[in-house]
Amino acid sequence: MKKTIIWIGLLVVVLVLAGVGYSLLSKQQSEQLVSQAEEKSSTSSEEEAVMLPDFTVLDAEGNPVESSALLGKPTIINFWATWCGYCKKELPDFQAAYESYGDQINFVMIDAADGKQETVEAGKQYIADNGYTFPVYFDTEMEAVISCGVSGFPATLFVSAEGEVLLGWPGYLETEQLNQMIEAMLPA
């Protein structure tokens, strides 16, 4: 019995240390990525810029929209689907960011509506049910997903007003990370 309690105590200590370590590494990685994005947006480099590829998505009324029409100011492009738990978890943060920064930053929320796992109708219903007001586009041909190299959901691109991809973020974005990237993208 005493050995069991000792083992459980050690396991708890290991788990707590692992959690603290993960938190510190995650924060450090986030800060490094934000720093890289700030450097990239504020300095001209001899490296060739990675530009947002051309693609076409549909707006909520079914009209085609070219990727170039989505630019003009700093832009956040988020790829999501209703079947994706982490996508649904981060959408409220995007809504809050849209409400705070929607006049300074374009928010482009692309639903990967392939017609099998996800449909335009399911995406529209989910947006309506949750009261989201950010602009939603539908990638029914998977053109945006493929041209942007998205291999998992959610995924987010941070793009300059001129169309330079500053950072690609695969996976779930914590609220703090999203806000840090937004602040880094805003004009000084």
Please describe what this structure looks like.
This protein has 188 residues and is an alpha/beta fold. The protein is 45% helix and 17% strand. It has a five-stranded mixed β-sheet. α3 links the parallel β4 and β5. It is globular and about 60 Å long.
Give start-end ranges of low-pLDDT stretches.
9-22
Instruction: Work out the radius of gyration.
Output: 19 Å
Summed up, the helix count is: 5
Summarize the main sheet: 5 strands, mixed
Query: Distance between the terminal alpha carbons, to the nearest Å?
Result: 62 Å
Beta-strand content estimate? 15-25%
Overall pLDDT confidence: 85
Helix content: 40-55%
Summarize the entry for a quick read.
With 188 residues, the chain is α/β, with parallel strands linked by helices. Helix content is 45%, strand content 17%. Helix 2 (85-101) links the parallel strand 3 and strand 4.
Features:
188 residues; five-stranded mixed beta sheet; two-stranded antiparallel sheet; 5 helices
Helix/strand layout:
Elements: H1 2-42, E1 56-58, E2 64-66, E3 75-80, H2 85-101, E4 106-111, H3 120-130, E5 136-138, H4 143-147, E6 155-159, E7 165-170, H5 175-185
Parallel strand pairs: 3-4, 4-5
Antiparallel strand pairs: 1-2, 3-6, 6-7
Helix pairs in contact: 1-5, 2-5
